[in-house]
Write a structure and sequence with these properties.
single chain, 3-stranded antiparallel β-sheet, 2 domains, 12 helices, Glutaconate Coenzyme A-transferase, alpha/beta
């Protein structure tokens, strides 16, 4: 009889001490941001006018964090502009910062980059994600064809051009790993163990989560683990280190399947920061005083915005298949 390896036996695996204990990670914006040191790198998820973790963004400003490296999404929104104007950012890794039809470019972003008041790490959408992918895979760099034949490799000395070792003569860009200490993301819901689900578009949030050392989620709803297990394929971030319960937590931006963006609020921010390009920051400071430093908590911020406004944003989303009731698509959580 052969003395080789024995075939695997079918059936459940018995753990000698039972399953490992699960750790609940529900926290607050204040406690999450208190763990961040000046000079660290923070990736902020979402896309232009949707799914931004605004309670965490505002808390970075309230706590006076400085010299952070902020890593935006492929199309970052005005949450980055707000951080720039508030003096939080020392280095920016973001291909874009604006709000589409509301603002082609953020005023603080454009002014500070043009005047070299912030260090900008030049990138494109694909270069950004290549750098995050390199970190997620534990690689020093990621080879990428994008950028060859453009000036971006001249503008960013960290991007190195090399010739393929396979002998075909093709040139590639070596994109160094981008390493966030934290990723701040906004999802529809999560359980208390850090399993988050996006009911809408995920954009680059998943690769940010995989690249970051730690992940914090703001969520519209806190659900049971049983709710997550009803449709586990939706679990886009299964390993968050902190979950911050924040209904309307993306306001003034949209949260997919819950509410639309608050166009009036975004336009008010754009008007408030218009003078920044001419050295007048009075409008920005007034906005910060009212919406960031004034409210002591996210609940206070929502009181300031007003329930009527928030309900109107929900109603605006209801014409889509997944309106504000999308939470119940896979059954109630009772």
């Amino acid at each position: 009889m052969s003395r080789g390896a024995q075939p695997l036996q079918a059936g459940p695996i018995e753990l000698p001490d039972g399953p490992p204990p699960r750790r609940e990670v529900v926290s607050t914006a204040r406690d999450v941001v208190a763990q961040i040191s000046d000079g660290q790198a923070v990736a902020i998820g979402g896309f232009v006018t949707a799914n931004h973790p605004m309670p965490l963004v505002r808390e970075l400003i309230r706590q006076g964090k400085k010299n952070l490296t902020i890593i935006g999404s492929a199309t970052g929104g005005l949450e980055i502009d707000l951080l720039l104007g508030a003096g939080v950012v020392g280095k920016l890794i973001a291909p874009y910062c604006g709000a589409e039809l509301y603002a082609p470019l953020g005023s603080c972003f454009r002014t500070m980059v043009e005047k070299e008041q912030v260090e900008l790490w030049e990138s494109s959408e694909y270069i950004l994600y290549a750098g995050l992918q390199a970190k997620a895979m534990g690689q020093e760099f990621m080879a990428w064809r994008g950028g060859i034949g453009t000036s971006i490799v001249d503008l960013n000395p960290d991007l190195k051009v090399f010739t393929s070792p396979l002998g075909d003569g093709k040139e590639y860009v070596a994109v160094p790993a981008i390493s966030p200490d934290w990723a701040f993301l906004h999802v529809g819901w999560a359980d208390s163990y850090g399993n988050g689900q996006h009911p809408g578009a995920r954009f680059g949030d998943r690769i940010m989560a995989r690249a970051a050392d730690r992940v914090a989620l703001t969520v519209e709803r806190l659900v049971s683990n049983a709710h997550i297990r009803r449709n586990p394929i939706m679990t886009s971030v299964p390993y968050a280190d902190a979950v911050v319960v924040a209904p309307y937590g993306s306001h003034p931006y949209a949260s997919h399947a819950f509410y639309a963006e608050d166009g009036e609020h975004i336009e008010a921010y754009v008007r408030a920061t218009a003078g920044f390009r001419k050295g007048d920051r009075s409008g920005l400071d007034a906005y910060l005083d009212k919406y960031v430093f004034g409210p002591e908590s996210h609940d206070d911020y929502l009181d300031l915005v007003g329930g009527r406004t928030l309900r109107a944003l929900e109603a605006e989303y209801e014409h889509l298949t997944l309106g504000r009731h999308s939470f119940d698509v896979f059954g109630s959580d009772g």
